[in-house]
């Protein structure tokens, strides 16, 4: 690490530490080692082309069961590595991973475009993630639609044929035009369909920007019609922000508990001592995520920071300074460990995650899942060793601060052979939503999260070691916005 970068890290330490402490959940006392740290430990779970899942289509009962078993196995391993959030690709390219009234199934699920795989993949993924105490966010690719080669198989279901006024034909790809007023309404309807029908914890917007210059995108006619003399870049930023605002308002009108996030380009803009080299969110692709957080349309940013060194750390801290450390969870390009993708060394990500943890940012997201689970250069072993033994919860929603303390659970524990049976009286938040339960084991070190997001009124725990049957345990209530109650301690 060079001297300029080291100096920058030390200069920002005090500022970011103060901001991070201010943003920590402080709803439980510290007498037992609470409050616990909170951060996203997320992965992008890519369904486009089956890059992460599914590996084969479901065309009959046997192949459907294999497809589901593959998802369960991946979720098991992600949980073991301390992953607490799945960014599940739900809208791919004008095709989807659920039974939608607006867009057809992608071919990867049922073997051909529009084919139903015999079950609802999104519903199944939500259920399996929640059983493992993980959040699942619907990852929606916003503006890119389908390639020209896909048009024939999609037929009349293709978005450019249903709504040609919303789509621009680039060289080999159709792209929704952010400048068309109907684009915001269409995407907000799609997102509202998802959050109203599925118990997803968040909505994650991707490619919510204009194309890079290498992609031909001539919106001059739209600009002439709607630009009203504004500078082109300003008008484009306003278009993208209008889409974000429309989606956020529509979604939260239905589900105020939905966590809103996006994956902007990795550098917001140039910083004082470092150039973005022409590739940034604000100027190059006309997206302003800082405004989206400031206006409350976004809770969290997962900037795609697939860089290192002077291209990573100064820009990571720039995001944190602009929106607050806890609302930035850098996206890390784990795929670049592969010899054909960059051949980086694991140490790059060891340093990056260590700095993220040290400065109490909002966590990290890994791209992509398959590179993690394939243990390229030992990356899975590192994450499992470092984070799997100390699972934590994602941050609470910044847009919904806790207004009054949650009640404590009325809980007890009984021993059943080699297991512990916890039980409690169900309770509800002031808005009527049910409270879930988290269980921690207390010991000499920090409390260890052993089960989370439990929706029932009981839970059976079988410790790995018989001696742990005699440990003390703490239970907390957990609301839909991620806030925790004071802990109550139980033990035999």
Care to describe what's here?
- The protein is of the alpha/beta class.
- The protein folds into two domains: 352 residues, Alpha-Beta Barrel (TIM Barrel), CATH 3.20.20.80; 80 residues, Immunoglobulin-like.
- Helix 2 links the parallel strand 1 and strand 2.
- Helix 1 runs parallel beside helix 11.
- It is globular, with a radius of gyration of 23 Å.
Oligomer: single chain
Provide the helix percentage.
Answer: 25-40%
Low-confidence stretches: 10-28
Number of helices: 14
| Shape estimate | globular
Reading side by side through the largest sheet, how are the strands ordered?
9-8-7-3-2-1-11-10
Class derived from helix and strand content: alpha/beta
Mean pLDDT: 93
Proportion of β residues?
15-25%
Described by strand count, sense and barrel closure, the largest sheet is: 8 strands, parallel
CATH architecture of the largest domain: Alpha-Beta Barrel
CATH homolog superfamily of the largest domain: Glycosidases
Radius of gyration: 23 Å
List the helices and strands and how they pair.
Layout: H1 3-23, E1 40-45, H2 61-80, E2 85-91, H3 107-110, H4 121-131, E3 135-141, E4 144-147, H5 151-154, H6 159-162, E5 167-169, E6 173-176, H7 181-197, E7 202-206, H8 220-226, H9 232-254, E8 259-262, H10 289-294, E9 300-301, H11 313-323, E10 331-332, H12 347-358, E11 363-366, H13 369-373, H14 379-388, E12 411-416, E13 419-424, E14 436-442, E15 448-454, E16 458-461, E17 472-478, E18 488-490
Parallel strand pairs: 1-2, 1-11, 2-3, 3-7, 7-8, 8-9, 10-11
Antiparallel strand pairs: 4-6, 5-6, 12-13, 13-16, 14-15, 14-17, 17-18
Helix pairs in contact: 1-11, 2-4, 7-9
């Amino acid at each position: 690490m060079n001297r300029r970068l080291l100096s920058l890290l030390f200069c920002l330490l005090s500022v970011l530490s103060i901001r991070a402490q201010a943003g920590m959940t402080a709803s439980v006392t510290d007498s037992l080692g609470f409050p616990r740290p909170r951060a996203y430990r997320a992965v992008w779970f890519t369904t486009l082309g089956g890059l992460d899942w599914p590996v084969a289509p479901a065309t009959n009962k046997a192949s459907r069961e294999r497809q589901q078993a593959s998802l369960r196995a991946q979720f098991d391993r992600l949980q073991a590595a301390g992953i607490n959030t799945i960014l599940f690709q739900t809208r791919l390219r004008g095709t989807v991973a659920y039974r939608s009234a607006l867009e057809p199934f992608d071919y990867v699920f049922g073997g051909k475009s529009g084919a139903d795989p015999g079950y609802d993949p999104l519903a199944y993924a939500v259920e399996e993630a929640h059983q493992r105490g993980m959040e699942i966010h619907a990852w929606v690719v916003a503006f890119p639609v389908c390639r020209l080669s896909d048009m024939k198989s999609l037929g009349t279901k293709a978005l450019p044929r249903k709504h040609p006024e919303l789509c621009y034909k680039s060289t080999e790809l159709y792209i929704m035009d952010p400048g068309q007023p109907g684009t915001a309404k269409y995407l907000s309807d799609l997102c509202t369909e998802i959050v109203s029908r599925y118990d997803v914890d968040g909505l994650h917007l991707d490619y919510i920007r204009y194309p890079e210059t290498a992609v031909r995108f001539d919106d001059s006619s739209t600009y002439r019609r709607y630009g009203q003399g504004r500078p082109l870049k300003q008008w484009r930023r306003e278009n993208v922000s209008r889409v974000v605002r429309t989606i956020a308002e529509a979604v939260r009108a239905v589900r105020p508990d939905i966590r809103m996030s996006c994956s902007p380009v990795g550098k917001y803009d140039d910083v004082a001592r470092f150039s973005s080299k022409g590739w940034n969110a604000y100027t190059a692709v006309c997206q302003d995520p800082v405004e989206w957080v400031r206006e409350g349309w976004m809770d969290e940013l997962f900037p795609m920071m697939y860089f290192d060194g002077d291209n990573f750390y100064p820009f990571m801290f720039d995001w944190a300074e602009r929106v607050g450390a806890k609302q930035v969870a850098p996206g890390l390009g784990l795929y670049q460990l592969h010899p054909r993708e960059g051949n980086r060394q694991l140490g790059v990500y060891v340093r990056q995650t260590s700095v993220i943890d040290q400065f109490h940012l909002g966590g990290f997201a890994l791209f992509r899942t398959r590179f993690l689970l394939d243990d390229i250069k030992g990356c899975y072993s590192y994450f499992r060793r470092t984070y799997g033994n100390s699972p934590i919860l994602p941050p609470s929603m910044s847009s919904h601060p806790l207004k009054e303390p949650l009640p404590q659970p009325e809980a007890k524990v009984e021993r059943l052979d080699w297991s512990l049976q916890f039980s409690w009286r169900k309770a509800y938040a002031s808005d009527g939503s049910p409270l879930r339960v988290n269980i921690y084991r207390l010991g000499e070190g920090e409390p260890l999260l052993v089960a989370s997001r439990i929706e029932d009124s009981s839970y059976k725990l079988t410790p790995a070691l018989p001696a742990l049957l005699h440990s003390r345990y703490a239970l907390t209530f957990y609301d839909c916005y991620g806030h925790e109650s004071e802990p109550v301690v139980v033990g035999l």
